[in-house]
Amino acid sequence: MQKIISHGQPRNLKINCLAAFLMLDSMKDLVSAESYNRTLKQLQLGQHMEQSDCNYLVWISFSGLGNRILTLASAFLYAILTNRVLLVDPGADMPDLFCEPFPEVSWLLPLDFPLKNEFNSFDQKSPFCYGKMLKNKTLTDSSWSILPPYVYLHLVHDYDDHDKMFFCNQDQSFLRKIPCLIIKTDNYFVPSLFLIPSFEQELSNLFPVKGTVFHFLGRYLFHPTNVVWGLITRYYQAYLAKADETIGIQIRVFDTGIGPFQHVLDQIIACTMTENLLPEINMREPVKVRNMYWHPTVTGEVIGVYQPSHEEYQQTEKQNHNRKAWAEMYLLSLTDVLVTSSWSTFGYVAQGLGGLKPWILYKPENQTAPDPPCRRAMSMEPCFHAPPFYDCKAKKGVDTGALVPHVRHCEDMSWGLKLVDDSQEHGVVRT
């Protein structure tokens, strides 16, 4: 459930295109028909491959919409760093939700791609799963001259220590030799890319302000289709365009019972009042946010509360539901101030697209509103929920949130990782 409380003249959003131009330049070597056809033939025959002059990364459409947006951005960045052509599995609805980002060329996976019908069955037991091949010692230095037809990268939340070797520098050296990588993930794994030495310089060149990665990737890649844009503009013009300030509140409830839950409302009110995001009201026992602001505020301001949709539950595979979800993420990104729920990729997308450092609602325990109810995010970056904790050189466990200044543990998930930047002199983050 998302609520947008309006009371700002909407600001003119300025898109910094520097990173976009750099990324476009990095993708300039587009698909070679001859190379692709050769790769296609070898995949069809299941033949071991020789190294190719044109390599590919195939992203499998997987999980909920927020996860898909974050993982596709992660895959795009990885493709740039490894000089690969990114091919996007359209899944059930990607073309219905997003415009193609590259002029005169499609990033959608060609219909004749031979493994397309097998994507749903790919898991850690798949024969060319990288983690499985490492576990079974199928890959040795002596076998590097004979490459598998493709390698499947299983980076889903249930991945094991062998799958996580993907984030080691030595393993990246091997993976560079594979013409076709296929990736399935439900994680925003960008923070751990910043811990791979061979990527360090290129990432520093692309993103001098580390806490802006998803902001630039997201603004460059994800543009609503006309159908979704219509939902956005109609709602914005009807309810938000004339406001002096807008506050977005993104609510994700993990309780399994039937809501609404009073402790969630109590937490939202406590956060917005404590942080002075909303004015106080002349009543002692507010019941609901909407009803609260039928009462006069202490400051005399007039507050309107709007909820774009009433979907209540996540419905991953339903087309109209995902259109509304994408529209709501975008509308939240247009607000001046944002409050988000812990662990929610929906909120991560909104804050990143909008360049907003949100107030994050702590996850309630035992149906009790936490105290304090929320805190300000360190950066607008999403959280990597399932990062590796492994020192590839020392071959032992390590706190990967304490290795470099710009990769820290998340505010909403103590074991997660996120990118931060101590310097805000570039003026990108809206505080």
TrEMBL record:
Molecular function GO terms recorded: galactoside 2-alpha-L-fucosyltransferase activity
EC number: 2.4.1.-
Annotated localization: Golgi apparatus, Golgi stack membrane
GO biological process terms held by the UniProt record: cell wall biogenesis; cell wall organization
One Pfam family from the record: XG_FTase
Enzyme class: transferase
Gene Ontology CC: one annotated term: Golgi cisterna membrane
UniProt KW Transmembrane keyword: no
Annotated membrane topology: Single-pass type II membrane protein
The keyword Glycoprotein is annotated on this UniProt entry: yes
Main subcellular location of this protein, as a coarse class: Golgi
Origin: domain of life: Eukaryota
UniProt keyword list: Cell wall biogenesis/degradation, Glycoprotein, Glycosyltransferase, Golgi apparatus, Transferase
Family: Belongs to the glycosyltransferase 37 family.
Function as written in the Swiss-Prot or TrEMBL entry: May be involved in cell wall biosynthesis.
Name of the protein in question: Fucosyltransferase
Gene, per the UniProt record: FT1_2
